[in-house]
Amino acid sequence: MKRYLYIGFVSTALALGIGGCTPTVKVEAPDKPIHLKVDINITQEVNLKVERDVDGLAAEPAIPLAKRAGWIGERSDGYLALVRPDAPSDIAEIVQQANEDRLLEFNAIASRHNAPLKTVELVAGKKFIDKSLPGEFVQNDDGTWVRKN
């Protein structure tokens, strides 16, 4: 029994002795604030939000008719264009007005999602080309016009 008391006493004294020998550490921060630059790529999230907004854009009823007739097509940058130079002037006016309307909508979407206008235009272009029907003209990335299959 005395032996256990002795071991307990020595263990306690040893623990207190070691604890008392640990150095004191003082942590100091610099006086000047540290500035960190964090660049997080949120392109995918922005693209998804923009894509949802682009889905909701309304179109002039004459646009699908002019697309099916082969007068106009969807550009890769989200805007319409005349595919044939001999298009009637009223078709050209529809394209011009539609593009002005799209630009207003694209700017609103870009502002709402704090995204560059170019990003909105490219997402819209891809979406509009994907939604185009077979036989309608769409613009390839290299600028050439093809009928969608």
For the structure shown, list the relevant keywords.
alpha+beta; four-stranded mixed beta sheet; YnbE family lipoprotein
Averaging pLDDT over every residue, what do you get?
81
Residue share in helices?
Answer: 40-55%
Shape: rod-shaped
Oligomer: single chain
Strand content: 5-15%
Give the structural class: alpha+beta
Q: What gap, in angstroms, lies between the N and C termini? A: 95 Å
InterPro entries: YdbL (IPR008309), YnbE (IPR025985)
Protein name: YnbE family lipoprotein
Organism: Hwanghaeella grinnelliae
Keywords: Lipoprotein
Descriptive report:
Helix 2 (43-55) crosses helix 4, helix 2 crosses helix 5 and helix 4 (89-113) crosses helix 5. A 4-stranded mixed beta sheet has the order 2-1-3-4. It is of the alpha+beta class. It has 5 helices and 4 strands; from the N terminus they run αααββααββ. It has one domain (43-147).
Give the SSE layout.
Elements: H1 2-20, H2 43-55, H3 62-68, E1 72-74, E2 80-82, H4 89-113, H5 117-131, E3 137-139, E4 145-147
Parallel strand pairs: 1-3
Antiparallel strand pairs: 1-2, 3-4
Helix pairs in contact: 2-4, 2-5, 4-5
